[in-house]
Write a structure and sequence with these properties.
This protein is about 25% helix and about 30% strand. It is of the alpha+beta class.
Length: about 160
């Protein structure tokens, strides 16, 4: 209730409209700054991934001459880089018939300054491996590289004993 003679005062419609517009413009500015930064970051990430995929499209790798020795439970073979780029982090994975897996991150064991470092194969380079598999009930052998699409797979029927 108002006392007699006193009027309640409020904002004039003009001032309220100006304040509402200023608030809206401020919030819009903040959102546009965030959106601008977000799109720039996303564009850089997508560009880098696209560049990696383009480079990796020149990669190819091959598993061959696979042999299993029941005397030592070792598997040996050759990995060849058939592509036009260097492939790194070459990893050998043996998948057994029961679904378990054994993974070997291959190292440059051919001596020299790179001994013990993760294996990197230059274009055309061949690498011979000999790894322990522990059992003869393997199903598949995979070779993976730092390029996600550059892999090769051999079946147990591709392995000589």
């Amino acid at each position: 209730m108002c006392a007699r003679g006193k009027r309640m005062k409020g904002l004039s419609p003009l001032v309220a409209t100006v304040l509402l517009i200023a608030f809206t413009v401020g919030v819009g500015g903040i959102i546009s700054l965030w959106l601008s930064g977000f799109t720039q970051t996303s564009s850089k990430i997508v560009g880098k991934e696209g560049e990696t995929q383009l480079i990796c499209s020149n990669g190819a790798i091959e598993l061959s001459n696979l042999k299993y020795s029941s005397a030592t439970n070792n598997m040996s073979g050759i990995i060849k880089n058939n592509g036009r780029i260097t492939l790194g982090n070459v990893t050998l994975q043996i998948v057994f018939t029961n679904g378990s897996m054994l993974t070997h991150a291959l190292n440059d064991t051919q001596g020299g300054a790179g001994a013990g470092n993760p294996l990197a194969l230059k274009a055309g380079q061949i690498f011979s491996f000999n790894v322990s598999v522990g059992s003869s009930n393997y199903d598949r052998i995979h070779v993976y590289t730092n390029c996600s699409g550059v892999t090769d797979t051999a079946l147990s029927t591709d392995v000589s004993t």
